[in-house]
């Protein structure tokens, strides 16, 4: 449970593993009830459980214990389903910030770069699968007969 001020709590279901576009939904943690409502209305999901470490975790922890006069903190967590650097998560975060704050940001360069990298990853995966398939086929061939040796 993430406490969103004034004792209100929010729960979420896990994003389905079979979701067609893992980059469609960001996760968030916020101390600002209004921001939580806005993010939820936009279709994004609050973090239910987990650990946030490092500077982000320290800032978030401090914001939960700070006085109510301090500015609220919101952390946006872009998905990273491929576990390698990927601009699609950054693109989601930038688009979300653009939408929340009505910013005039041109994301065309980032979109082009994200697509290029995604295509390169797909091609690399296809090449690896082809190499594995070729090696399996070679390994499954019968050994040459040595009956005349």
Automatic annotation (TrEMBL):
Q: Which Gene3D superfamilies match?
A: PAC-like subunit
From the Swiss-Prot or TrEMBL record, give the protein name. Answer: Uncharacterized protein
Q: What InterPro entries does this protein's entry cite?
A: Proteasome_assmbl_chaperone_2, PSMG2_sf
């Amino acid at each position: 449970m993430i406490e969103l001020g004034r004792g209100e709590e929010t729960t979420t279901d896990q994003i389905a593993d079979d979701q067609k576009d893992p980059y469609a939904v960001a996760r968030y943690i916020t101390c600002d009830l209004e921001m939580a409502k806005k993010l939820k209305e936009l279709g994004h999901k609050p973090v239910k459980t987990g650990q946030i470490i490092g500077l982000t975790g320290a800032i978030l922890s401090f914001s939960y214990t700070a006085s109510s006069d301090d500015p609220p903190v919101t952390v946006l967590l872009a998905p990273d389903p491929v576990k390698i650097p990927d601009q699609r998560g950054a693109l989601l975060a930038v688009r979300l910030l653009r939408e929340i704050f009505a910013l005039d940001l041109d994301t065309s360069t980032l979109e082009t770069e994200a697509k290029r990298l995604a295509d390169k990853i797909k091609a690399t995966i296809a090449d690896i699968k082809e190499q594995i398939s070729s090696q399996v086929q070679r390994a499954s061939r019968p050994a040459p007969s040595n009956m005349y040796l």
